[in-house]
TrEMBL record:
The keyword Lyase applies. It comes from the Bacteria. Keywords: Lyase. This is Phosphonate C-P lyase system protein PhnG. GO terms for molecular function: lyase activity. One of its GO terms (biological process) is organic phosphonate transport.
Length: 152
């Protein structure tokens, strides 16, 4: 049995942030290269709704903006670690993959492997995509200026 170790909440949140922005096929392809331990579904992937809240101007009174579809799943490894996965939309496979990754990063013997083979490459791809979009946006930037017409 593997030795469980403390994974910080920040580590798990950072991993979740990378995984929810990745495509399910990318996560699955990266996990396919790793010999995974046995796991069971604690909660089969299921779809539901969450209320999205907003604030006028970002700091005004909160209001209900609308509902969003989410999918959640929970997985337990044979060694006892439980992982949870949530994603926007109805992709049940992606929610299960995220839950599996969450469980794996809680194991000392898999945490570095998941970071190196799954999370780091996905993080790099996402950063490159953000840079590409920023460059495209910067290329369309227009600088406006005003001419002063005399003393007021």
């Amino acid at each position: 049995m593997a030795t469980p170790f403390e994974t910080s909440t920040q580590t798990r949140q950072a991993a979740m942030a990378v995984l929810v922005h990745a495509h399910a096929d990318d996560i699955a392809a990266r996990l396919a290269a790793i010999e995974l331990p046995a796991s069971e579904a604690l909660r089969a992937p299921e779809n539901g709704l969450v209320m999205v809240r907003g604030r006028v101007g970002g700091d005004g009174a909160p209001f209900n903006l609308g509902e969003a579809t989410v999918t959640r799943a929970a997985v337990r490894l044979a060694s006892g670690e439980c992982g949870f996965g949530y994603t926007l939309g109805r992709d049940k496979g992606k929610a299960r993959l995220i839950a599996l990754c969450d469980a794996l990063i809680q194991r000392r013997d898999y945490a570095t492997t998941i970071e190196a083979n799954v999370l780091a490459p996905l993080r790099a791809e996402q950063a490159a995509e953000r840079r590409r979009k920023a460059e495209q946006t910067a290329a369309t930037k227009v600088d406006f200026y005003t001419l002063v017409r005399g003393e007021g």
